Amino acid sequence: MILLIDNYDSFTYNLVHYVEELGHNVQVYRNDKISLKKIAKLNPKKIIISPGPCTPNEAGICLELVKRFYDKMPILGVCLGHQSIGQAFGAKIIKASKIMHGKTSKVSNLGSKIFKGLPTSFEATRYHSLVIKNGTLPKNFRVISETIDNKKNVIMGIEHENYPCYGVQFHPESIASVPFGKKIMKNFLNL
Fold it and tell me: For residues 76 and 74, what is the distance between their CA atoms, to the nearest angstrom?
């Protein structure tokens, strides 16, 4: 079973449909309607943290979930979920220099298991006004995807160097991210 944490976002069920289409059972819980104890009892194979309209500080259980389970099961954070992973490990979340709501950008593939089989750059859909600040990720994380906004690199993906904990700032579940978004989801689910 895959556990999907819903951060009260309209894209949550796009993620659910991808997971189900790829042959997995999924259970969805809102970020403030589940406890760490309940997650441990459910013992999911993987956890996906959805996008959402707030900051990691306002995302219910997300920060504590990342800290508790990153070394126990694979985690994928999307948009707010990505930011939550970064912040849980000490990265700073800041206002983006360029607000991206429903726009596509060319993002790089700097190498990761979740990007296996993808080209070195691809179009991805972005819906965000916050980003992980460059230079604030801890040493046990690496950047796996970037784009350029206002002539500056912007982090679009991260992964832990020792555990299967990943984040993508863009939306793989958006129709405008097809076919690469579904491939990213498939790669994560096949870890």
Answer: 7
Q: What is the mean pLDDT of each run of 10 residues along the chain (191 residues)?
A: 98 96 98 99 99 98 99 98 99 95 94 98 95 97 96 96 98 86 97 97
Global pTM value: 0.97
Tokens representing 36? Answer: 């760490």
Give how far the C-alpha of residue 15 lies from the chain's centroid of Cα atoms, to the nearest Å.
11
Instruction: Tell me, letter by letter, the H, E, C secondary structure of 144-160.
Output: EEEEEECCEEEEEEEEE
Block residue for tokens 């939550």:
84
In CATH, what class is 2-189?
alpha beta
Using DSSP's 3-state secondary structure scheme, residue 69 falls into: helix
Point out the residues that are catalytic. Answer: 79, 171, 173
C-alpha 11/C-alpha 52 separation (Å) is 8
Q: Where are the domains of the chain?
A: 2-189
Residue for token pair 């126990």: 72
